[in-house]
Design a protein that fits this description.
Layout lengths: L9 H10 L5 E10 L8 E10 L6 E10 L14 E3 L3 E9 L11 E5 L12 E5 L3 E3 L6 H21 L7 E4 L5 H12 L3 E6 L2 H8 L7 E4 L7 H8 L5 E5 L19 H7 E9 L8 H9 L3 E4 L12 H17 L9 E3 L3 H9 L7 E3 L2
Parallel strand pairs: 9-10, 9-12, 10-11, 12-13, 13-14, 15-16
Antiparallel strand pairs: 1-2, 1-4, 3-5, 3-7, 5-6, 6-8
Length: about 375
């Protein structure tokens, strides 16, 4: 789910011209999450914040042209301050650079992801960010596409290249293939010669996936109680199982609340996984019982946890992180990756839209600032 805004930089340019080299601050407005005692009590509010006009050695000030909103993991934010900035995927124009910045200069168009510990919302008129979190935006790539796909593209690369070691000839199962993340993963896999299977959570998702080009080898409509995920995958692979499974959540028990009924049962994923296969999971609380572990052992299969935030955990990975983002925006500009974006809604619907994203009532929505 994403929010996009277009912002004028006249006041920022005037301020930088007159006070840019001092330690003054200027105020801008952004979207923040106000944490409560429980996840259900979290609220999204518009809040003013101070942005320093003086930059650090490797910092860049960017006029934000578009910002994407993704769901927040409230549990992991409990240790942070009361107001947590919302909107980290940004695209914009460089206004000012620090004395040791080498990658960019003013007026460059850039795209990137604000670090996890940022104090600024991506909806601010301008943000200050380290140059190692940004890459050049190709001229042919639109603001909206760049901001809308940068994080999902990073997740797809991390899952398929870094964790699963995807190679031509492999068979991939993408669970919830119609999600923004799933669509980019399918396109990236097709580009590398991988056979793709995908599950659909509704009849609308199934119709959408069946119309994708290049075509998916098999769309499995798990919304239909008559369709069995395991049988469908084994049938499609001649009983050998798939090489890579990429989930969007897992049921830990066969009987779970209705909201999770379409998620695959963990034992089913292990069953449809082939020998030497890779299971990439987004389920943070995954718990395997001894029989599950033994099944993975007998197949010499591996399990990896997908967390795209790990790229910011070590400075030794900055070069690879930037290489991935550069490749993403290049493939976006050439049409190899084509994100599915909805029509925008007005900026004053930002808080309501974000609440819907957080509650998973919608997958993706665009909001512009006129």
């Amino acid at each position: 789910m994403y929010l996009f805004c277009k912002i004028s930089a006249y006041s920022l340019t005037w301020f930088n011209k007159n006070f840019g080299s001092t330690s003054f601050y200027f105020q801008c407005t952004g979207l923040y999450c106000k944490l409560g005692e429980t996840a259900a009590e979290a609220k999204f509010v518009i809040q003013e914040t101070n942005v320093p006009s003086a930059l650090g050695s490797n910092q860049v000030k960017v006029q934000v042209k578009a910002c994407a909103l993704s769901p927040l993991d409230i549990k992991d934010l409990k240790f942070q301050r009361d107001l947590v900035p919302v909107g980290r995927e940004i695209v914009g124009i460089v206004l000012q650079v620090g004395p040791k910045v080498t990658f960019f200069q003013p007026d460059d168009e850039v795209v990137g992801i604000l670090p996890l510990d940022t104090a600024m919302s991506g909806l601010c008129d301008a943000v200050v960010i380290n140059e190692y979190h940004l890459v050049q935006k190709p001229e042919k790539l639109s603001w909206v596409e760049a901001a809308g796909a940068i994080r999902d593209g990073l997740r797809a690369y991390t899952a398929l290249h870094t964790l699963a070691r995807m190679a031509s000839g492999h068979t991939l199962l993408v669970l919830d293939g119609a999600s923004p993340f799933g669509v980019l993963a399918i396109q990236l896999a097709h580009y590398h010669g991988v056979k793709v299977l995908a599950s659909a959570l509704s009849s609308e998702d199934q119709k959408f996936l069946e119309q994708l080009r290049p075509s998916i080898a098999r769309v499995i409509g798990v919304w239909d109680s008559k369709v069995d995920l395991v049988d469908s995958c084994l049938e499609e692979t001649g009983g050998l199982g798939v090489d890579i499974v990429m989930d969007s959540g897992v049921r830990l028990h066969e009987e779970e609340p209705e909201a999770r009924c379409l998620l695959p049962y963990k034992h089913d994923i292990i069953t449809l996984l082939g020998v030497g296969g890779h299971w990439v999971t987004t389920e943070q609380n995954l718990q395997l019982d001894p029989p599950d572990s033994r099944s993975l052992f007998l197949k010499a299969a591996s399990l990896s946890f997908l967390n795209e935030e790990v790229w910011g955990a070590s400075s030794a990975r900055q070069g690879r992180y930037l290489h991935i983002m550069k490749d993403i925006v290049e493939k976006l500009s050439t049409g190899t990756l084509r994100p599915q974006l909805e029509d925008p809604v007005p900026l004053y619907d930002a808080t309501v839209s974000m609440e819907m994203v957080q509650k998973k009532q919608v997958r993706k929505r665009l909001v512009i600032q006129l």
